[in-house]
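Example record for the data management plan.
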Amino acid sequence: MGVTLDRVTEIARSLPGTEEVEHREARTWRVGEKTFAWERMFSKADLRRFGDEPAPAYPIVAVRVADLAEKEAVLAEQRPGFFTIPHFNGYAPVLIELRRARVAQVREALTDGWLVYARQELIDQWRMGR
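Corresponding structural encoding:
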C-alpha cells in the first residue's frame, strides 16, 4: 500500500494524450486542455476545518470524477485514502491521501478522471492498447 507522486505521473502518462504540467507549484495532469488530476496542498482554512483531527498527510492528489453522484459512490466505497473536504462541496473531484491508497484504486481513479475529458479517439486508442 502507498503510492508516490512519481507513480501517479507514471500512471497518468500511460493514458493517451496526457501531459504533466506545473500549476501553482504543483503537479497537474491533463488531457487536451482539461485538468483531470492535480497535486493538492491544504490552505490554512482547510487545515482549520480539521480541528483537533489530524489532517491527511501529503502527498495528496485531487482527481476529477464524472459528477457528484459518482463522487458520492466513490466515497461510499470507503477506499483507503479517499476523502473530501468542505472546499470541494458541490464540486466533483475526490481527494486521495497517497500514502494510504492502493495502486490499483489510484489507477482506476486516474483512468476514470481521464475518461471524463478524453476525446473519443484517445479513448479508442487506450482501449486498443489494454
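Summary line stored alongside the record: The first helix runs from residue 5 to 13.
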